Amino acid sequence: MKWVAVALAAVSAVLVGAATDSSQEGKVTEEQISGTVKSNEQQRPPNIVILLADDLGIADLGCYGNNTLKTPNIDSLAKGGVQLTHHLSAASMCTPSRAAFLTGRYPARFGLVGQKNTPSVIPHLSSKVGLPLEEITIAEALAAANYTTAAVGKWHLGSGCGFLGKNCLVAQQHGFHHFFGLPLSLLVEAASTQPFFFFPCDGSHPFYQILLTVAVVSVVTLWWQCGYRPLLLFTYFSVLSIVLSITWFFYTHYRFHTNNWWGVSPWMNRHLNGVLMEDGVVLQQPLILEGLSQQMASHSAGLIAKYAREEQPFFLYHSFAHVHTPMFTVPQMAGRSAQGRYGDNVEEMDAAVGEILAALHEHNLEDNTIVYFVSDHGAHLEAIDEDGQRSGGFNGLFKGGKGMGAAEGGIRVPGIYRWPGHIPAGVKVDAPTSLLDTLPTILELAGLPPLHELLPHLPYRELDGISITDVLTKNAHPPSRTLIHHCDRNIHALRFIYEENVFKMHLAGHKWKPGSTQCGWGPNVYCSCHDVEDYSQEPRLYNLRLDPYEDSPIPVNSSKYNQITGIMLQFLAEWQARVSYPPSMLNSVSDTVLSPWIQPFRIPS
Known about the structure:
Number of strands: 17
Shape: globular
Oligomer: single chain
Number of domains: 2
CATH architecture of the largest domain: 3-Layer(aba) Sandwich
């Protein structure tokens, strides 16, 4: 496009003579490259293991500077590979982030994002919303290349269940041959003890007192008007009981009467959304939290042992339930960390990483397996349990966190790639990279053709990610590009990458609590993508190479400000003219609410 040539020329002019403080730490030497390159002759193409953490902050790991938590297995992974320090999620909430991660495309392109007055993620196992079947995932691509594919752990991209919960394909409708785990997500209410029959008459919920009053007054009035007529009273009482029961059920267990219209009661969340499944069969309902991390890690280790005996390569996508709320660990790991329950969760997750890596080592698969560890987005800063203990992670000095689509703390995540003999060991790379890059990068690393060549019979899909193979293997500069940062369906910021220069332009900003970079405190508290300050008339611009924590915006009307914002606004105008976003899938009430008629249930043995 015309803007690219203009942009590069303008940036070159603006940046001539500018001082750079880029550290040489982590630069790959010629000796490292030549010492790690091995023969391409292999018994089979490389196996691929992706380890995806949930809500893990970039400052939660030892290899990223945390000296209060013990993460030896993840730290060892970083020592054996490339550690990305400018790695970015495509969204700051689970569903859209994972959709982008698996497809290499912004989820706003296909409507799997929230918009005003909708949820930001798929709220229920029995919602009809999900990753569109026409979107191509990394699993579909690798399956086409004769890989055996498996997904273990959290999915949260739609279940695909039919009537009475039949044919819940979950990940299997998107290229995975096997699925074991949580078809939805780990919810705070998974630890709830609220009963189904909930009648608080203490004044905290006056609706129940009104309901009881209506029932008593109506029966007394009928008796007074009609006298003692048993059949009439019985009929009237039966009809009244049905009407009041239905009214009670929908008020108690659904949230249609609130702004959170898609919500349900803690009991419904625990019993209908807290489910463990394997290939469409419900194994646990409700979910048993204690031992869940070990159960899923053991399942992945067992798959590795099984696949090691087979001829074709495998792709294992292990998506952890940790470190999402609620916090839980097995008793022997509880209370061991220096950061309370949250720290226990991080360390339990690290132990699960160790079990999976040990399985690769045990079956002599380390040298021929690409391992990629990453978090889906930044830590949930607002999360605090009822007893005041933190249940959210740490994003270091980066501002903001989960739920904030443009805040650096919400999208800057840990990312580690390891492939002995092909990716250098012990290297830190500061080049901006994205979870959007996963699909094209994995294909190139594995020696496979691009997506449109691998699946030529399918309609062409424009990817928003690029291959970062040269960044990983040679610490090369990534190609110049602009990344878009969405919050739900809205564009809140742009990031312009040109050689070693990175500029970020904010079009909107969250209304943080004074003295913080968060929007309150509580297990289900997040910043809204729609209650924001509008900067579009005078965007805020930062040079992230010189100011990574966004402390000092570039002065408005300076030559650099005018040049860079002009480039980025031109890109935005061309993007919006070329790419049309559909409405949010989550805007449909009938597709989004919990629908009992497609709810899967555990069948007693």
